[in-house]
Each structure stands twice: as structure tokens, then as C-alpha cells.
Design goal:
Number of helices: 5
Distance between the termini: 110 Å
CATH architecture of one domain: 3-Layer(aba) Sandwich
CATH class of one domain: Alpha Beta
Radius of gyration: 30 Å
Strand order of the largest sheet: 6-5-4-7-8-9-10-11-12
Oligomer: single chain
Structural class: alpha/beta
């Protein structure tokens, strides 16, 4: 009987010691005594709304320094528009720190997404995107391939103003549109090799007759290209003369 009483007394003592600690950690008490007063945001932010950050953090921060759930803060901040990555830390006695990496748009992806410079897709929603972004598209599993072909085309076709659009459809067929409106059909196989063969030829073709331009080039042939020609646009100087 004495042993049982001693065990009960020991358990009661442990509970009385542990309960205040649990209460502080869980935020039952102590939030007013050890509040989080400072939100420190690190990172080069151009589009993330700081008011939205504060609103996302506040419900967790109210729990106080010891009870704040860092994972909960991270999850909330990751849902703020333009936030690509966030690391959350706290510093004694009252600082909550967010290290944020902002999405930097590289291209539009399909109709509803944007591709970041780090290769991540995020919803376009009602975001105000920079003008002039190229349009890329295809299965999400092939993002790297699409970007690689776009970069190759940008390099090889720079003298023609660069590339506006690169797509791979559901059948695996590649197509491309230059910024001057020229359409390139590359087919399913070896689009990079077909592009590399055609790029140096395009300048030669246009140099032969400056009154015409290539509207469409089908590169799916082994030993040549099928071209659709159109009339070159006439540029007008400010004095009214044409060139």
C-alpha cells in the first residue's frame, strides 16, 4: 500500500512540474508574457505583399515565442502569392524571422501557370505578370526539355528577334513560333537537331529575297524543309519614306 502511495505521489509531482511547461509550449499560458513582437523578413522581394505575409503569420504568432508552430507558419506563408520558398526561424526574445525566395517568372506555361527561373510551376491566377514573357507548354514532366529547346532556339535565332512560343503537344510533337511570327514545325524526333540544321539556313533564305519572309517552316523532312512564304512587312521611317 505504501509503495502504491509513493508511486501516486511521484506521478503527481511529475505532473505538477510538467504541466506548466506543457502549458507554455502549447500556448495555454505565456503568450502575453513571451509574445512575438517583431516579424523580420529577409530576401529580395519585389512582388510579395508584406501585408499578406503579416496576415498569414499572425494566427500562429499569437501563440507566443515558445508555442509558435514554425511548420504552421511556413505552410501559411507558402500560400502567399509569389512566395516560392520560405525558411522560418525564431530569435530570443521576441523575433520571428522569414527568409523568403520570391518567384521570378521565366515564362508563361500553358493558359493557367507560370514557370519560375528555378523551374517551378505556380498558378498564374490574377497575378500581374511582366510583359513579353514567352509562352511554353507541354506535360509538366517535360518542363526541362521544353526549357532546353527554348534556350537553344533563343541562342540560334537571336538575330530574328528570338522565340515567342515553344510547345510539345499530347502526341509529343514539337512546334515553335518566333517573335516575328514565323512558325516552325519540328515533329516528334530530334527537335534540337532539326532546329540546329535550319537556323543557319534561315538567314541565307531571307537574304536571297528581302521582299519575302518565311511564314511557316516544316522541318520534319530528312533532307530539306517545306517553306510557306509571305510578303515582307514594309517598315516606314518617321519622315514617311519606306525601307
Amino acid at each position: 500500500m505504501n509503495a502504491a502511495l509513493r508511486l501516486l505521489g511521484w506521478l503527481l509531482a511529475v505532473t505538477l512540474v510538467a504541466l506548466p511547461v506543457v502549458a507554455v509550449v502549447e500556448g495555454w499560458i505565456g503568450a502575453e508574457r513571451w509574445p512575438l513582437r517583431t516579424l523580420r523578413v529577409q530576401g529580395e522581394l519585389k512582388r510579395v505583399d508584406r501585408a499578406q505575409l503579416q496576415a498569414a503569420v499572425l494566427p500562429q504568432a499569437k501563440r507566443g515565442f515558445f508555442a509558435v508552430n514554425l511548420s504552421g507558419v511556413q505552410n501559411a506563408v507558402e500560400h502567399v502569392a509569389w512566395v516560392e520558398q520560405v525558411e522560418v526561424r525564431k530569435h530570443w526574445p521576441d523575433i520571428l524571422e522569414l527568409q523568403i525566395r520570391e518567384y521570378r517568372p521565366f515564362a508563361r506555361w500553358g493558359e493557367h501557370q507560370v514557370l519560375s527561373e528555378h523551374g517551378h510551376l505556380f498558378p498564374a491566377g490574377k497575378l500581374k505578370l511582366p510583359e513579353g514573357l514567352p509562352l511554353l507548354g507541354g506535360p509538366e514532366t517535360r518542363v526541362q526539355e521544353v526549357v532546353a529547346l527554348y534556350n537553344q532556339a533563343q541562342d540560334q535565332l537571336a538575330k530574328f528577334g528570338g522565340v515567342q512560343r515553344v510547345m510539345i503537344d499530347k502526341r509529343g510533337s514539337w512546334s515553335m513560333t518566333l517573335r516575328d511570327g514565323t512558325e516552325l514545325v519540328l515533329g516528334r524526333d530530334d527537335p534540337d537537331e532539326r532546329l540546329a540544321r535550319f537556323a543557319p539556313m534561315l538567314a541565307q533564305l531571307l537574304a536571297q529575297d528581302t521582299s519575302r519572309r518565311v511564314l511557316r517552316a516544316d522541318l520534319r523532312y530528312t533532307n530539306g524543309f517545306a517553306l510557306t512564304w509571305g510578303k515582307a512587312e514594309v517598315q516606314t521611317n518617321t519622315n514617311g519614306s519606306s525601307t
